[in-house]
Design brief:
By secondary structure, this protein is mainly alpha-helical. It is built from five helices and no strands.
Length: 294
């Protein structure tokens, strides 16, 4: 029984090792899948951060463009104003040198100022139109670039969601496969354990049957040695009946030796019957002799 226990324990240990190895492999697969998914998500996050940074830079450029155009317009307006003032001062000095009265100088300066202010207004308006065209052109370029980046951002976000969805799906599929694999292993384990238990039980039944046969042979041997031939016939008959029993005869070790046991039983039974008949004949002879003597 000790050997059978060791055999059963070895089978249990082998099954446990196989299960542990399978579980470790599946755990590594899930870990690798998560690592790949995290790497893909990290790449998408970096791409999204980069695009958002570019969009923020475009918005900064747009604001700087408007502020720059306003500043340039104020600067140009100040330049024109100073230029007119300088021309008026020069003209005033020139007229004073010509000996004109203050009233005449004032009229001349007023007319020149009106003329120069109108000219400055036209120049400033032209400058504003040109600046607006440049601003609009730059704004359009920035808007187009912003639209492109927004489209890229949308695609990157969709790709990120796709990576997440695919990652979840792959993990769910892998876990489903693992669950199926685990169920299969559990089923196979149960079958293997049942087979081991049946094998151990069968070995135990075979040992019991072999021990019983040894005992039956011992009884027959004792009966023959004691010349108890009637008992010996019954003992030998018990051996034959035992190896012919349904459950006993189906045991592999008994099935292998059954024909030999039946042959031995038959030979010994013939021998015992012969010895029994010889003893009976000897007894009859002695009785006849005694009658003659009497």
């Amino acid at each position: 029984l000790g050997a059978l226990y060791v055999l059963f324990q070895r089978g249990e240990t082998r099954i446990a090792k196989e299960e542990g190895a399978a579980a470790t492999a599946e755990g590594k697969l899930i870990a690798e899948l998560k690592r790949q998914s995290e790497a893909q998500l990290e790449a998408k996050n970096r791409e999204i951060d980069s695009i958002q940074g570019r969009l923020a830079d475009i918005e900064r450029q747009r604001q700087e463009l408007q502020a720059g155009m306003d500043e340039k317009e104020r600067t140009r307006e100040e330049e024109l104003r100073k230029a007119v003032a300088a021309e008026l001062d020069a003209e005033r000095l020139k007229l004073q040198g010509q000996g004109l009265t203050d009233q005449a100088i004032a009229r001349r300066i007023a007319d020149l100022e009106a003329q120069k202010n109108a000219e400055s207004a036209r120049q400033l308006d032209t400058y504003r139109q040109q600046a607006e065209q440049e601003r609009a052109k730059s704004e359009a370029s920035l808007k187009a670039l912003s639209a492109e980046y927004n489209a890229n951002l949308q695609k990157a976000s969709e790709d990120r969601q796709k990576v997440l969805a695919e990652s979840r799906q792959r993990e769910e599929e892998l876990r489903a496969q693992m669950a199926q694999s685990t169920a299969t292993r559990e089923s196979e384990k149960a079958k293997a354990e049942a087979a081991l238990r049946e094998r151990a039980a069968q070995k135990e039944r075979e040992e019991i049957a072999s021990s019983q046969l040894v005992s039956l042979y011992g009884v027959a041997r004792t009966d023959i040695a004691a010349r108890s031939y009637d008992k010996a016939v019954q003992s030998l008959k018990a051996i034959g009946e035992y190896v012919n029993q349904g459950e006993v005869s189906q045991l592999p070790t008994i099935a292998k030796r059954r024909d030999v046991d039946l042959f031995v039983v038959d030979v010994l039974t013939t021998y015992v019957q012969g010895e029994k008949e010889k003893t009976s004949a000897d007894t009859s002879s002695l009785l006849a002799l005694a009658a003659q003597v009497t």
